[in-house]
Amino acid sequence: MENKFIVNIIHRPEMVPEYAEKVTGHGKEEDIGRKALLTESLDIFKTQQEIAHKNGLKTTIQMTYASLFNDEAVELAKADHEKYGDEIALSLLGLPCTEFREKYKTKDFCIWMFSMEDKKSIVDDVFGKFYDRFGFYPESTGSYYMDAELVNYIKEKYPMVKCAVATCWEEGPKAYHTCNNSWYTFMDGGPWAPWIPSKQNVHAPAANEAEDSGIVAIPHLSRDLIACYDGNGSNFGTHPQNVLRSMSYDSKTWEFPYLYNLIDQYRDLAKYNNGYAYNMMFVGPGWMNKMGRWEAPYELLLKSYEDGMAYYGQLKKEGKLDDMTMAEFADYYRQKKTLTEPECALWRDILYGSDKQLFWYCDPFMRVCVNMDQGGAIVDLRPYAAKLEWPVGIGTKHITDASYPFLIQEKYRAGYFTHYAGEGTVRSAKLTYKGEEVDLCLCRTKAHFSQEGNTRILTLDPVDIEFYDLTVKLQTKIYFEEGSSNVKIERNILEMSDPNAEVEINEYMVACYGTTEYSEDMSNITLTCVGDTESKEIKYAYKCREEQLAGAKEVVSVIPEIETRVSLSCEKKDAVGYIKEGYAFSPMFTLGYTTKLKDKEVFATWLNLAKAN
């Protein structure tokens, strides 16, 4: 199977780049129509285009609304389309300009934050102006985020649109905090690689043709799937600006090995995705202005861009890269991938020199992160199976928070390593022997990826668990069966220092729901142990109660607020299923199974997700 590595390079002539007016107009009253600002922006856009073309790369030119009023910008786009095959597309970023401000009487510039009525009006204005200037409608569009209602409206009214930049990976509270608590755009919980969004929620991929929104979505930048998850996303992506902002370059030589390592790790993802890998860069001119940015002078900003493009150009010359426009990529993706085919990424740390490894899995039913530093625990889980409708913008319940809710999220809800009381969200297992307890979260390991038919398998290196007078060698295997909306976890006792010993295993999941660090109201949650003849139920009331049932078929939590039913199940008849309610200081719930295991025995449990009726 031939490995194919595709890059989308997307430039936008932002005539009034975000934050540039404040820099170039320092000490002057705000004037977004100022000539110096417009001229410099266009010069930078031209520079970016020249650098791409010099390296033999074609681009997608996403015209902004402001640029459609500029004759030179329009002519440049037409000329580069003719000469280099660049696609002329339309961005819903870069709305602010004198014309826009006069009509909409607002400084808002994020399309998804407007009321639905304004979204439609803006889309019609922008698409109409584009048609006036070019005589056709665009096949591609985009923003930092596009909500489902917006995408559905665009597709219905402008059916030729087939591709869109639709979310920014892990731009949530972490990005907000590093912007001095001023960047009110939350969009955590979506895919990191291209996907076909559902009509109900852009983050959640479509499971079938009826759910297909009709576009191929791409992320805004290809992010580092560890550094960006652990820290601020804006610092760790394949946009040179990110690398400069994070200071992860050599300040003496101005070299950027991290950027190339990041691109290479994206190339490597072909191993886990049937020979296909993707990378993108989506840039406006604002970051490259003559006054410098992020403690970097203009010369460094320019060099970072030239070096990055030269690397893509070199890969193309060596036959290792295909540069595509957005529309071309959408056609390729539709032909290459089925709706239920997952996106997988076994990702290692390339920035800090640790051995850390995460595995990311995304399909129409879930997004899962498995952390090998915590023994293969699940540390992030988004229940896409619910296909949660989550309208965003003025006039909705979620004006600024477009994130897809989590059930488990170690950064916002503590994970295994908590303060001193209570529990954090995690899916792991504990082993107990003679009163001693060890959690697999404490057992670092490494993972190996394989695929058998429609099942992706993560095989973890065995770990040695040492009790006072017993050593247990245990191996974990995790199975993701395509289209199944569950994750199977298998624990295999490979050997014990005392072959006649018996250990207790407790397979557990501590969870909650939310999109930020702040706890939500858990009062409507129901927990149930379901048996063949009886069931035990807890209606959540923060009372710290527990129930258990021998031979339980499944242990279930129903969370009405996010329309999600999550359960653990197992086939071992003598296993005991249990449910635990949390309390106000630790507002979680726990689902689990306990059973006894002997040498050479295997215990399998399933984590199942469904939409709650």
Describe this structure in words.
- This protein has 613 residues and is α+β, with helices and mostly antiparallel strands.
- The protein is built from twelve helices and 29 strands.
- Strands 16, 17, 18, 19, 20, 22, 23, 25, 26 and 29 form a ten-stranded antiparallel β-sheet that branches. Strands 15-14-21-28-27-24 form a six-stranded antiparallel β-sheet, with no helix packed on it. Strands 1, 2, 3, 7 and 8 form a five-stranded parallel β-sheet that branches.
- The protein is globular, with a radius of gyration of 25 Å.
- The model has no long low-confidence stretch (mean pLDDT 94).
Short structural description:
The chain is an alpha+beta fold and 613 residues long. 22% of the residues lie in helices and 30% in strands.
User: What is the number of helical segments per DSSP (H or I, 4+ residues)?
Assistant: 12
The average pLDDT value, as a whole number, equals 94
Task: Report the sheet with the most strands, covering strand number, pairing sense and barrel closure.
Answer: 10 strands, antiparallel
Instruction: Report the principal-axis shape.
Output: globular
* DSSP strand tally: 29
Cα distance, first to last residue? 42 Å
Q: Tell me the quaternary state.
A: single chain
Uncertain stretches: none
Helix content: 10-25%
The helix-and-strand class reads alpha+beta
Strand content: 25-35%
The gyration radius over C-alpha positions equals 25 Å
